[in-house]
Amino acid sequence: MPANILLVEDEPAIQELIAANLTRAGHTVMRAGDAETGQRIVREALPDLVLLDWMLPGMSGVEFARRLRSDERTRAIPIIMLTARGEEQDKVLGLETGADDYITKPFSPRELVARIKAVLRRRAPQVTEDAVELGGLRLDPATHRVTAAGEPINLGPTEFRLLHFLMTHAERVHSRSQLLDQVWGDHVFVEERTVDVHIRRLRSALEPGLHDRLVQTVRGSGYRFSTEIETTPAN
Amino acid sequence: MPANILLVEDEPAIQELIAANLTRAGHTVMRAGDAETGQRIVREALPDLVLLDWMLPGMSGVEFARRLRSDERTRAIPIIMLTARGEEQDKVLGLETGADDYITKPFSPRELVARIKAVLRRRAPQVTEDAVELGGLRLDPATHRVTAAGEPINLGPTEFRLLHFLMTHAERVHSRSQLLDQVWGDHVFVEERTVDVHIRRLRSALEPGLHDRLVQTVRGSGYRFSTEIETTPAN
DNA sequence: CCGCAGCGTGACGCTTTTGTGACAGGTAAC
DNA sequence: GTTACCTGTCACAAAAGCGTCACGCTGCGG
After folding, report:
1. Taking Cα atoms as reference points, which of A28, A52, A27, A26 lies closest to residue A39?
2. CATH entry, B4-122, from 3.30.1540.10, 3.30.420.40, 3.40.1620.10, 3.40.50.2300
3. For chain B, give me the number of helices (H) and strands (E)?
């Protein structure tokens, strides 16, 4: 679950260290060396989370947090306070000012990443996806199961996502490039023909000669999931 | 949302004051003047929440909290610490020991009731304390026992909690990070792969080749407890 | 009937994910 | 103290998927 994180920290060495760890964890990091810069970035970029040093030149972290909370657009942005040992009594104040969590320096990179994850998840409660039932097939994201007339069908992760997408966008034709974007993600780079191979694997996993017809080829365009089985002209 | 609340407070006047307010808010209040009495009540009555004075004769509040957390049955009970001004640095210690919140004396009755409500709501998705019976396995939180066809199965605390969660949320796939949150707790930071190890220990504790199949791996997603044994594709 | 572009298919290294055994602390009971 | 668990974390082994390729088939326009 990658996020845009604003790091407000005046100490360059610490800033660098933290940023490196966050990047390695898959997050995008924006940096600010002082509160003013931080505020500007917040307004312009609307980060998903703010990592905020307690001691800042010019404006204290608490004041920074207070301003974030007073603006409607930035009110919901989670804040994690960074405090040094010996400022511990301030943690309490930090929490009361509206920080969602705090970490005492020095901290382990793992703890930092874990707390970020926890805060982000707390803010964005997971949406439970509903099961799809179509053409005698049933696909349930919650249990990660696919069944045809009660009989379980074993699919690999990619096949599962592929079928899920096709079923939730049934009757529509999707080009290989569309499928790559939606199922693989728009950041990955794989051959378009790879889609063909997974379609094949998906078909052979479904009951051959029966449900595999639900996954149809549209020559020159792409693939489609359809409950209307194509009639093979008996010529 | 009325609750059974245990109040551990040695000062009679304060005890009386708090109890009156809680009762007026619709809660049931049990009182203890010292830690020993408190512990006994906790074990016997399993309150929904513990209001815990920081300074206690005999045993500190932190020690009290620690013991609560170390017992399987009382682990999930939320704790709110009561601290006097000037003990503020201890708040941090209190939080880190496992308290869910803290309140500084003197406090307003309204604040107290509000915080109680907040903590209870946060803990709201309480798992049932009833025995679970599923797939030939029986797990009883009350007696802390697991049996398969009458035969007892020995599990460590973590394995027990893990199995308990999986069984009470059967058929559903849980990612490692979800399991860490639900079984270990949000404030614990351990490697995700630790889940794997405990799954393995859990499996090998269950009857090999038989009940261990109930704990299933969903590659790329996580784990699942299911009575529907996965069909191994007969290739 | 031919050629060509599009698609199906089987095979094959390779990477990622998961299982497993071992180990160093830590804790509670003794 | 000592003993017997638990626990979290490794490193390594095993397994399962994945992406690509080469080749063969198919349908369509000439």
Report:
1. A52
2. 3.40.50.2300
3. 8, 11
Question: pLDDT at residue A23 above 90?
Answer: no
Residues in chain B: 235
Identity of the highest mean pLDDT range in A214-223, B49-58, B88-97, B177-186: A214-223
What is residue B65's predicted lDDT score, i.e. its pLDDT? 79
Positions 173-202 in A, CB within 7 angstroms of strand C: 193, 196-197, 199-200
Sign of CA dihedral A197, A203, A204, A205: positive
The pLDDT score that the predictor gives to residue A62 is 76
Torsion angle of C-alpha atoms B37, B42, B45, B48, degrees rounded to 10: 130
Nearest-by-CA chain A residue for B225: A143
Chain A interface mutation, best of B189, B191, B194, B228, highest count of A Cβ atoms under 10 Å: B189
pLDDT digits (tens, 9 = 90+) for B139-194: 998 888 899 888 889 999 999 999 999 999 999 999 999 999 889 876 677 899 99
Q: What does the domain layout of chain A look like in residue ranges?
A: 4-123, 132-225
Q: Whose C1' is closest to the CA of A157: which nucleotide?
A: D17
**More confident call, A20 vs A145:** A145
Task: Answer whether B183's CB lies under 8 Å from B162's CB.
Answer: yes
Identify the helix (H) or strand (E) that includes residue B8: strand B4-8
| Between residues B117 and B132, the one the model is more confident about | B132
pLDDT of the residue at B66: 77
Whether the per-residue pLDDT at A150 is higher than 60: the answer is: yes
Q: What is the CATH number of domain A4-123?
A: 3.40.50.2300
Q: Is ipTM over 0.85?
A: no
Tell me how far apart the alpha carbons of residues B133 and B148 are, in angstroms, rounded to a whole number. 10
Nucleotides of D under 7 A from a protein CB: 5-11, 16-22, 27-28
Determine the Cα–Cα distance for residues B208 and A34; give it in Å rounded to an integer: 59
Tokens of A13: 């060495």
Q: Which of A92, A114, A152 sits opposite B231 (nearest CB)?
A: A152
Q: What is the pLDDT of residue A198?
A: 97
